[in-house]
Design goal:
Elements (H helix, E strand, L loop, with lengths): L2 E4 L3 H14 L6 E3 L2 H7 L5 E5 L7 H15 L5 E6 L5 H4 L6 E4 L4 H21 L3 E5 L4 E5 L3 E7 L2 E6 L3 E4 L3 H8 L3 E5 L2 E4 L3 E4 L3 E4 L4 E3 L5 H14 L6
Parallel strand pairs: 1-2, 1-3, 3-4, 4-5
Antiparallel strand pairs: 6-7, 8-9, 8-12, 9-10, 11-12, 13-14, 14-15
Helix pairs in contact: 2-3
Length: 241
């Protein structure tokens, strides 16, 4: 999960970071002191904690620009949680579709409640955005839920798509499948693409999946795979409820 904290008070930035670290395993939020610096970063976030009263672009102005940017790029809008010391400012937040707000000083119980609601909303969005891949076999053409794929194996001019229930022989190349499947899959060997959601363990010679199946891991790709897998785990949501 990609999270940003934007507040001109260092103590508030640190407090929110500490509260996040207590609730979400492996979280690594990015910290910004001003709305201008957040906008200049030009990064896409899933969740943004945004102070309303700041020098330069205030929270409301920053939020409007973020919304405009998302619309132009066709990106999913970030969940915005506003932070303010003055309750009256909260009503302005509704103009930019704020998810919720937190009043300073931030109470830990309230923070936890709002964060849990935000995470549930992100999970709903993720389910709606399930990716599918187009598959062409000898007898038919159809779409397949990418999350159902354990790994893909190269078989000459064809590929084998391994799911929990079947093995599908299809007409495609590994490069084409890699492009369709995206970052949740890793090209661990020239002949294998593995879904990192199903990785159980790994060593320098191979990757064992939760199904017990094992796929090759090229020695020269071991270091890059470990980094990619750690990055994948950090971006997944693990909340202690």
């Amino acid at each position: 999960m990609k999270i940003a904290i934007c507040d001109d008070e260092k103590a508030i930035r640190q407090q929110i970071q500490e509260l996040l670290e207590k609730e979400i395993s492996g979280v690594c939020p990015e910290l910004y002191e001003t709305g201008d610096s957040l906008l200049a970063a030009e990064k896409q976030f899933d969740l943004i904690f945004l102070d309303i009263q700041m020098a330069g672009a205030d929270g409301i102005e920053t939020a409007k620009k973020l919304r405009e940017r998302s619309a132009l790029k066709g990106e999913e809008e970030a969940i915005l949680i506003f932070i303010t010391g003055i309750k009256e400012y909260v009503f302005e937040a509704f103009d930019v579709a704020a998810f919720h707000y937190l009043l300073k000083p931030i109470a830990e119980d309230k923070f936890r409640e709002v964060l849990c609601r935000a995470i549930k909303e992100l999970e709903k969005r993720k389910k709606k955005q399930r990716r599918t891949v187009f598959i062409k076999t000898r007898n038919r053409s159809f779409t397949l839920d990418a999350d159902s794929i354990l790994y893909v194996e190269s078989r000459g001019k064809k590929i084998e798509i391994h799911t929990a229930g079947e093995c599908i022989e299809a007409y495609s190349s590994m490069n084409e499948m890699e492009g369709q499947l995206g970052e949740a899959f890793y090209r661990c060997h020239r002949g294998y693409l593995v879904n990192m959601a199903y990785v159980a363990e790994y060593d320098s010679e191979g990757i064992t999946l939760q199904s017990g199946e094992r796929v090759y891991l090229a020695k020269e790709k071991y270091g890059k795979f470990v980094k990619a897998y750690m990055r994948y785990l950090r971006n997944e949501v693990h909340v202690d409820v």
